[in-house]
Specification:
This protein is mainly alpha-helical. The protein contains 15 helices and no strands. Helix 7 packs across helix 14 and helix 9 crosses helix 15. The two termini are 24 Å apart.
């Protein structure tokens, strides 16, 4: 738990930080008997490790910028948008520079709400159908963890960054408004800077879109619990997809990548279940040995 906090002070290498952070949920399973509280702790420790993995590539911003991929999602979105990326089409058609209208504010709040949606969806499963919780959590956090691997391997710039550096229109700067920043400064005032520093730890982690991937997975998990919960989950996922593209936070290509990741995890999960059960049995054996000692 301490490794991500002290990594800079102690000069820890990323491999060391990720190794010990990834082991912490397993360690909790060894030293604490299974309970609902332990379930929450395991999820929290996994996310703690994920946040470290997400942020560490940006510890050296220049090194990350030197290897960032910018052009391939632009090429995909230009093809999908018939010559113009959908973000530019939407903002040019409906956005008025200098103000954030009510619809755009709804989209911004939809984006901000994402920080609660994956975990809130699992909390709903935990409360309503606890027997499904372990499987649901495993699928959700597998999406998070695999996404972090992509952020290390192929750091990819979002539309707002590409526009800022002149990649969207033949090397000339194109205006992509980042309305989340504009409205954030207006709504949160002096608190916005601190909030953004906490939530925006790596600006070059766009492919795949874990915003979309985890929301898509949440919709599936909620649908398994009940049709009403599923309808809420799917409605949010569709709204978030529009928000991410309209606000310039992601390309449509990023959303496609996120969908492929989420659906891939869903398809593989049944086949991986026997291996997961064997691993769990091994952890229980170690737990029993620790308790006996």
């Amino acid at each position: 738990m301490a490794a991500p906090l002290v990594r800079k002070r102690l000069g820890l290498r990323p491999a060391a930080v990720l190794s010990v952070s990834a082991l912490s949920p397993i360690a909790l399973c060894v030293v604490v008997p299974r309970s609902r509280a332990r379930d929450v702790g395991v999820c929290a420790l996994n996310m703690w490790a994920y946040v470290a993995a997400y942020e560490m590539p940006h510890d050296d911003p220049q090194a990350l910028a030197d290897r960032v991929r910018v052009r391939y999602p632009i090429a995909v979105d230009r093809a999908l948008g018939l010559g113009v990326p959908p973000t530019l089409r939407l903002q040019r058609a409906f956005s008025a520079p200098g103000s954030v209208n009510r619809f755009e504010r709804v989209l911004v709040w939809c984006h901000w709400m994402w920080f609660f949606v994956p975990h809130g969806s699992l909390a709903y499963v935990w409360l309503r159908d606890h027997d499904r919780f372990a499987s649901s959590a495993a699928r959700m956090y597998t999406v998070f963890d695999l996404g972090a691997i992509f952020y290390w391997a192929i750091p990819t710039a979002p539309p707002w960054w590409a526009a800022l550096h002149g990649y969207l229109e033949d090397g000339q700067p194109a205006q992509v408004r980042r309305m989340m920043i504009e409205y954030g400064e207006e709504f949160w005032g002096e608190r916005w800077g601190a909030l953004y520093d906490v939530l925006g730890g790596n600006p070059l982690a766009a492919m795949p879109s874990l915003h979309f991937a985890t929301s898509l997975m949440a919709a599936h998990l909620l649908e398994e619990v009940g049709p009403i919960a599923g309808a809420v989950g799917w409605s949010y996922t569709v709204a978030l997809a529009l928000a991410l593209v309209y606000l310039g936070e992601h390309y449509v290509a990023d959303l496609i990548g996120g969908a492929m990741l989420a659906e891939g995890v869903r398809r593989v999960a049944p086949r991986a279940a026997p291996l997961a059960r064997s691993f769990t049995s091994g952890v229980r054996v170690v737990q029993a040995q620790v308790a006996a000692a």
